[in-house]
Write a structure and sequence with these properties.
There is one protein chain. With 310 residues, the protein is an alpha/beta fold. The chain folds into two domains: 246 residues, 3-Layer(aba) Sandwich (Rossmann fold); 31 residues, no CATH class. Strand 3, helix 2 and strand 4 form a beta-alpha-beta unit. It is globular and about 65 Å long. Bound molecules: iron/sulfur cluster and zinc ion. The site of zinc ion has 8 residues, from helix 12.
């Protein structure tokens, strides 16, 4: 097929807007969309020090490329990457390797922190301990809390003013559906492109510049730009509720192109309404164990660690 904007052969079909684009026009639209997301939501300031949560997968690798190019143009802005090594056999070593290679290629400062050093055990060891729990939660629920917490702490310690994560359109739609199904409306109030409603020195505001980018377009962008990314799947991923939701959403999108964009739009309209209705749960407490932010006496991170160690 021919590109809808020139006579070149198309490299992408965007079903939701019924167009075909050649490599040049696809890349240009993709980058324009991200710059628009950043501008519209005031994600960056000219003097930001940005930490990028890098897993070496397509999303965070593309994010690192785009942000490192953008920041080169702004003298006072700086960027570095943080990788968390969860300690998952057959997976984590590759994550660290791909991330390091990418940072070296792009000339970006890179920091790696491991579950083993920071919490005293790998995720594999933790998953093993969880087998003794009466009710076994999915490994991902632990991994997610521990990783998010570490990323925030390390980004803050390294002087970041923003923490950029590679959440894409699909991730946001999945999160929205999961929260709705679980009836966790409070969590929806914490969604958005800039997560940091709670102003607190302990919390590095999180930004999601890829939030309006469909997952398959990120993969295509990475391939067209020859960005080497890791496409290995973590062995625990199958267990997650998220993978069921992902399949359902992809099925809906296939039959009704544009559904994901519509869901994101509805989400963004709903967030302020819910924030108003829920009066946003503040996190004024400091965890009595680690001193990080907590909604109760002990933060989620320490609560999990206590449970594991007991
Ligand atoms: Fe952690 Fe689950 Fe992601 Fe694996 S799939 S890295 S266990 S959150
Ligand atoms: Zn704590």
């Amino acid at each position: 097929m021919q590109c809808s904007q020139c006579t070149n052969e198309s490299a992408a079909e965007l079903k939701y807007s019924s167009i075909f684009l050649c490599k040049h026009h696809f890349i240009s639209l993709f980058e324009k969309r991200i710059r628009h997301t950043i501008r519209q939501n005031k994600l960056l300031r000219h003097d930001d020090r940005i930490a990028v949560g890098l897993s070496g997968g397509k999303d965070s690798s593309v994010l690192l490329k785009i942000l490192s190019e953008l920041t080169k143009k702004v003298r006072k802005t700086s960027i570095f990457a943080v990788t968390i090594d969860e300690g998952i056999s057959g997976y984590s070593d590759f994550v660290v390797e791909t991330s390091s290679a990418l940072c070296e290629e792009m000339g970006v400062e890179h920091h790696v922190f491991s579950f083993r050093n920071e919490i005293g055990m790998t995720l594999d060891e933790l998953a093993d301990k969880m087998k003794n729990f009466e009710k076994q939660p999915p490994v991902c629920s632990y991994c997610g809390v521990l990783r998010r917490n570490l990323l925030n702490i390390k980004a803050r310690e390294l002087g970041a003013t923003k923490l950029a994560i590679g959440h894409n359109l699909d991730d946001e739609c999945q999160a929205m559906l999961m929260n709705l199904i679980r009836g966790d409306l409070n969590r929806i109030t914490r969604m958005g492109t800039l997560v940091g409603v709670i102003r607190n020195e302990k919390f590095v505001p999180k930004i999601k510049p890829l939030r309006e980018c469909p997952e398959d377009e990120i993969r295509l962008y990475a391939n067209l730009n020859e960005i080497k990314f890791n496409s290995l799947k973590c062995s625990y991923a199958q267990q997650s509720f998220r993978s069921t939701i992902r399949k359902a959403l992809n099925d809906i999108e296939e039959k009704h192109p544009g559904s994901k964009f519509q869901l994101l739009k509805s989400t963004d309209e709903l967030i302020p309404v819910l924030r108003e209705a829920h009066k946003i749960e503040e996190l004024p407490n400091k965890c009595k164990i680690c001193g990080e932010l907590a909604s109760g006496e002990v933060c989620k991170f320490c609560e999990l660690l206590q449970k594991i160690k007991n």
